[in-house]
Amino acid sequence: MAAPESFDVAILGTGLTECILAGALARAGKRVLHLDTLDHYGAQLAARHAADFLAAVAALPDSEIGVSSSAPQSASDEQPVLGADGDSEALAAQLAAAPDAAEWVARLCGDAVPESPERLREARFVASLIARARHFNLELVPAVLYSRGPIVDLLVSSRVGPYLEFKLLNDMFFEWDQEMEKVPSGKDDIFVSKTKDLLAKRRLMKFLTMALNYLDNEHAWQEHANRPFCEFLAGQGLDPKMSAVIMHAIALVGDADEAATITTADGLERTHRHLNSLGRYGKRAFLVGMYGTGSELCQAFSRYCAVFGGLYILGFQPDSIESTDEGVCIKGQDQTFVADSLVVGAEHAAKLPVPVKLVETALWRATIISNAPVLGTTELSMAALPPQEGARENGVFAIQLSADTCTCPEGLYTVSIISHSSKSTKQDLKDALISLHAHQARLQSASVWLDAVYQIKHIKPETEDAFMDKRIAVCSSPSGQIVLEDHVAEARRLFERICPGAIFYPEEAQPPEDE
Amino acid sequence: MSAARSASPAGAASSSSAAAAAAAAAAQANLKPIQVKLVLLGEAAVGKSSLVLRFVNNEFQENKEPTIGAAFLTQKCKLDDKIIKFEIWDTAGQERFHSLAPMYYRNAQAAVVAYDLTKPASLEKAKAWVKELQRQANPNIVIALVGNKLDLASTARGVSTEEAQAYANESGLLFLEASAKTGEFVMDIFTEIAKKIPLDTLAAARQRTGLTSGGGAGGASSSGRVDLNQNPANSQGADGNCAC
Ligand SMILES: Cc1cc2nc3c(=O)[nH]c(=O)nc-3n(C[C@H](O)[C@H](O)[C@H](O)COP(=O)(O)OP(=O)(O)OC[C@H]3O[C@@H](n4cnc5c(N)ncnc54)[C@H](O)[C@@H]3O)c2cc1C
Ligand SMILES: Nc1nc2c(ncn2[C@@H]2O[C@H](COP(=O)(O)OP(=O)(O)O)[C@@H](O)[C@H]2O)c(=O)[nH]1
Ligand SMILES: [Mg+2]
């Protein structure tokens, strides 16, 4: 099959910056060639079926996958669980029906025929996950979107949005003194809660009102703009707990160092971003994608690029990339492509003919798959577990998803735990799993629980100027944050270098509402 | 992107009914269009985009890849007392190097698998797609096998009607030959699909998977799906909802 030979821009990698950029360039009339060495979209953001997910985790150095269960207190506590009731014959039948299940059961539960009801329940649980592997969309790097943030705004204005389906995370929790508490999302919540005295409530209201319109209230914080946000919060008469709620659950600062140093201006900006997202699509601020957030965004922007003429080749293995006078020349699979510019995802930088300076951050993460909710009985929810003396040095975030987002089959829940700090250790993540297990035990006495702890590398170019020579640029892999918003700005910067003066995603006419 | 079309040239089967008052009432109840996601599959250059353009805009572009600058095109089809709104996803060329995204075929209730009746190899490709559909897709998906470029049949036919029909019969597919160029039998593809779609189970199934059924006016659906266009751009979170 003869492919067109020359392009304005070639892009290698289908991470989010790359896909947003590809769509913008095609829309601006550029001829775009978009390649990935992998056979799926989304690079690290991809959503995987259960067996693929476990295999991907197992392939990461130092990763751990474990299964545990707690017995029902009484017969009536037994959950109608996927494969969790029955006997060893039922397990044998399950394994016979799904040959690849046997391998995972042996790996996670041992080779021996399980004796105790717990071990049997665990083995049946693992077998049922693998048997229904296709009904999972599990992400190594899950994320949420601000209801009013750069990504959602772009989805609306560009009309890429209709490809995708979103759900609102309906609850937001905050762990304090080993309790999961709801983060107030409005006036009513604040005044209904029993835990705070009236004066504290008034102070909190005053602060939040100011922060929502912080740019109009500069007088209230200008003097402190470049000083630590934590000091500013303390000066508002907020108690340590309320300060922590604002810092960690509202401004989404997870890292203890960052909590100590983030400036008042930045802290208010992030507080504002959260508050400003409340009420746009419901009571809470964050959206998640059905079938996965990052991977679906990548697919949608890629499709948009293709609709405007972009050429897509997944599973393309370049043999060589050379910078010539005519352009960047990419050879591979008996084809040669020439492009005026080349943008590659950071994970492909080693293939470039130019030296590239990269910054690499490795972050620990964990994923739980269980037959009972963990954060709260609301299926889709999120929690901030802030740094706490004796519990953990750095904070983590947790996102609970379910069949409601097609993340897993009916009756199961997944919880992803994310640390923003490269200082967090594997032990910190395991400690977080222990506290979450305790929260689950309070909601539900019997459960089966699989957890995977793993580390993901996040790579970005050292300098903000991503161009390594006049033709070749490198862009970041996912940032490692729980939000993906920075990818829009990165794509826009690259776009403006490649297409000076052109419009980045011109506002599209909204279709007429029919009936 | 041009807005999704919703004009209705679809002259689908309907009017023969002796239209009793009861039937009219039933029609009223079902007037809300039933949305059906339809995907196109088949080798590059068999005329998939041309078929869509003929069906939706009733036009044809000679010797060039038709540009379908829209997320997906919509076209309504009236069938007895129901209106079916096809949401038609074209491959946007992503089939050329096997780079279709899962998003493309997810939740498809109907598929048009096209081949070029002047090119026997394209039928083999179509068979591979049918196999893939039968392996991967929802078992209730309605598949139509379409031999396109019927206008060239008299001079350059490479696949006999009998051969394709026999394959379609044994695989349980709808089968038609059509021409995107002349428009011949293009409407029939969609009408036949509309007739075969199990409409009654459809509405319920869509609800469960979180897609808004029907015309999809703003607001979160009962399944909690968020419509991004639900609120006008700058309504602030204030009053009751925001934290102040
Ligand atoms: C031509 C073609 C090629 C495909 N190729 C691939 C491929 O290469 N890789 C791949 O991964 N998939 C592929 N698929 C499958 C596709 O991604 C969907 O999974 C499939 O269309 C849905 O069918 P199902 O068998 O899951 O339906 P069912 O199991 O009957 O599910 C019914 C509905 O429930 C939805 N659903 C699925 N999972 C859940 C869940 N966990 N919770 C709640 N609802 C759920 C489905 O979207 C579906 O609409 C392909 C499909 C087609 C048509
Ligand atoms: N003669 C003839 N040519 C057609 C017909 N349909 C499409 N074509 C031509 O076939 C080529 C490929 O069509 P296109 O719709 O782009 O195919 P796609 O790649 O499957 O989407 C174009 O040159 C069209 O003009 C048809 O019915 N008859
Ligand atoms: Mg086409």
TrEMBL record, chain A:
Lineage: superkingdom: Eukaryota
Protein family: Belongs to the Rab GDI family.
InterPro entries for this protein: FAD/NAD-bd_sf, GDP_dissociation_inhibitor
Segments forming a coiled coil: none
Annotated protein name in UniProt: Rab proteins geranylgeranyltransferase component A
Pfam families to which the protein is assigned, alphabetical: GDI
UniProtKB/TrEMBL annotation, chain B:
SMART domains from the UniProt entry: RAB, RAN, RAS, RHO
UniProt protein name: Vacuolar protein sorting-associated protein 21
Compositionally biased residues, Polar residues: 228-238
Record Gene3D superfamilies: P-loop containing nucleotide triphosphate hydrolases
Keyword annotations from UniProtKB, A to Z: Nucleotide-binding
SUPFAM superfamilies tied to this protein: P-loop containing nucleoside triphosphate hydrolases
Region Disordered: start-end pairs: 213-244
Annotated TM spans: none
PANTHER family xrefs: PTHR47978
Organism expressing this protein natively: Polyrhizophydium stewartii
